[in-house]
Amino acid sequence: MIEVQLLTETERFTPPGFGPFESHKPERTLAGGEHLSLAGLEIDVLFTPGHSPGHLTYATDGALFSGDVLFQNSVGRVDLPGGDWPTLHDVLAREPARFERRDADEQAEHWH
Questions:
Q1: Rounded to an integer, what is the distance from CA 78 to the centroid of its chain?
Q2: What phi and psi values does residue 71 have, to the nearest 5 degrees?
Q3: What are the structural domains, with CATH classification, of the chain?
Q4: Fewer C-beta neighbours within 10 Å, C or N terminus of the chain?
Q5: CA nearest 3: which of 73, 79, 82?
Q6: Helical H runs in 21-95?
Q7: Closest to 94 (Cα-Cα) out of 33, 4, 3
Q8: Spatial separation of the C-alpha atoms in residues 76 and 69, rounded to whole Å
């Protein structure tokens, strides 16, 4: 919900020379802690600030959709507006099992 303003007032946050972009009013917002059932998937919504103030990560059985929070051997940038390294570090330390890298064999077994 923190980043709703970015959707509803897009032009306000658009740098000069970019756009125009359309604003949108979200039908539903998420804040983390929700559980979604979509397209046959069970998805946990995790509040993972640090890269951005309202960043969300989506966890399913065998996959983690983290946007720009995690990369191979690295994490997302925290030098952008609203980014904060101590916050991101705390998020990753809070649930380390969710963010552990699995090797391909383990993933293949887990997904079948």
A1: 13
A2: -135, 170
A3: 1-30 (no CATH), 31-111 (3.60.15.10)
A4: C
A5: 82
A6: 85-94
A7: 33
A8: 5
